[in-house]
Structure formats: C-alpha cells, structure tokens
Amino acid sequence: MKLEDGCILDQNAATGKGCYRPRPAIPNCHREVIDVQTPKRLRPAFFTIALLCTAAAAVSPGTAGPAPAVDPALGALLASPERSAPFVARDAARHPVEELSFFGLQPTMSVVELWPGTGYWTEILGPYLAARGHYTVALPKPRADGEDGGLSRWNARVEQQKARFGTILRTTLATGQYDIAPPASADLVVTFRNLHNWMQGGYAEAVLAACFRALKPGGVLGIEDHRARNDRPQDPKAEDGYVRQDYAIALAKQAGFVWVEASEINANPKDTKDWPEGVWTLPPTLALKDKDRERYLAIGEADNFVLKFRKPAP
Q1: Is the domain of 50 the same as that of 125?
Q2: Please, what sign has the CA dihedral across residues 118, 121, 124, 128?
Q3: What is the domain-level CATH number for residue 253?
Q4: pLDDT one-digit tens code per residue, 22-32
Q5: Which of 50, 55, 120, 283 has its CA 20 to 30 A from that of 290?
C-alpha cells in the first residue's frame, strides 16, 4: 500500500474495508482502499508513519540558513591529486565540501558512513579524519551471487590508499545486522543516496533506528537521496529510486530524530523524475546507454534532497 500524506482512516462497518480520505486543507492526498483487518501487530508502525507524514506535510520543509563555515583543510582535500579522476569529475554535481560543512563535520569527530558505494566520500572523509577523528564505515553484506555493488572496488581503493586514509573501522549493515557502531558513540552518521535501497529492501525503519542508537545525544544524522515529486504518492519500495522529502523526514522522525533543516545544494530543477528506467536513466548510471545519451547528460544528476537531523539530548 502506498503511503499518503494527511489522510484520515474511514471504515465501513458493513464491508470491513476502510479507506484513507484527504484531511481538510492538506493537498496531494487521495483515496486508497485498504483492508482494515490487517493484523494489529502490523498497524502501529504504519499509523505512526501516516501521522508523521501529516505533520511533515503541514510544515513546508525549510532551507538552510547562512552557509556554514568551511574548514580550509576540507577544501584542500578536494584538490588532492590522489583523488580518483572519476570522483573529481562529479564534484560539481555533488558539492562535497558544502554538504559536509552543512552536516557540521569537524576533524575530531567520530563519523559513521553507511554503504559507501565505491568510495567517493571515503576519499574525503578518510584523510580528513585520519589524524584526530574516528571513521567507521558500515558496509553491505557481500551477495551470494558475487555481485557486490562496488564493495570489492571500495576495498581495493582503501587498500591502495590505506596510509592516507588512516584507520577505518568496518562494520556490517544488512538485513538483521544493524550494529553499525557502539551505542552513543558517533557524533555524525551520514548516508548518501541509500535510503531508497533500504526502502526497497523493507528495512529502512530498522536502519534509521540503528543510526539513532549509534549517535550520541545531540549527534547529527545527514541524509541525501533522490527527491521524488510531491504531487504523487510515495511508493514504499521506491522502485524508481526516488523518495519524497516529506516521507524521508517522517521516517527519521519516527526513529526519534528531530529535523533540523534542509539544504538545496544538490537540487536540480531539470529532473522531472519520470524517466523510463527511474533515476538510473540519468548520469552517472545512464541505464539506456547511448539512447538519448546527450539529452540525459544535459539534464545531469538527479534532483537530490539533503536533510539534517539531530538526536535529542536528554
């Protein structure tokens, strides 16, 4: 069932069926029939999410205030000749210094990155934290079919640059494996374009709960992902790779986080989010290969939200 924002549950006593109808004054919410005889043990989490989405829809997501101060050392890392050329080519779309500064990264922090892909952020976070901080990477579990989604390339990159990266503590994040770091040990947990994968796998809530446990009181969670259109209901599985911003905020709030602010540094108004192969139609994947390649290159990488949350202090 697709989640709707700002909806009220109506039940027909004669049929045993129910539907969500729009709550007055909240747009983009339409009817959807559900079976209210769903086992009660499955209802509370869904109803909580629905309520939180209502709250998120009621307040328009804000944008960040004045640009945060940038550590010159962080900027210098971007110019390092030791960075991989394909990663450097993506800096204009990913704005790494601005994004990490927005999250409040400091060189003495204990930072956890979830699912690092092939290492774009590792090439920045590793050397930045090597001297005075702590860097933990929660890796996906290798797949039985041998397709590891870049895990072997990440391992090879870390091995090649281990002197520069310093000590990287490795943990595992997968279904049923959520010990990403010791409880209340992290100052900052970050994840870049992964939330839709966990939604597809059906364990996004468990991942966010793990982030909450790992963070110190007052610690920050930073989430970036492909932003879905807000005039369409959210697919709970995010099959096209897009996640509504209000939906992401609601998920994090359900885990206990307080939403701080959003940044538009990775916004792309050219992304209409209706592509034949979902977000992967666009670069860097270019799922259609040479078909309309120049068109998709001109559009650029997807429209992405950047959200900052905080774990409340006692």
Answers
A1: no
A2: negative
A3: 3.40.50.150
A4: 333 333 333 23
A5: 120
Q: What is the pTM of this model?
A: 0.80
Based on the fold, state whether residues 172 and 51 are members of the same structural domain.
no
pLDDT digits (tens, 9 = 90+) for 120-145: 999 999 999 999 999 999 999 987 77
Give yes or no: residues 20 and 160 share one domain.
no
**Which residue, among 215, 174, 214, 172, has the nearest Cα to 197 in the 3D structure?**
174
Q: Does the bond joining 68 to the residue before it have cis omega, within 30 degrees of 0?
A: no
Same domain? For 53 and 167 the reply is no
How far, CA to CA in Å, does 15 sit from each of 9, 11, 12, 39? Answer: 14, 8, 6, 17
Residue 252 phi, psi (nearest 5):
-65, -40
**Domain presence at residue 65:** no
Give the Cα separation of 259 and 249 in Å (integer).
Answer: 7
Q: Which domain holds residue 31?
A: 7-58
How confident is the model at residue 133, as a pLDDT?
A: 98
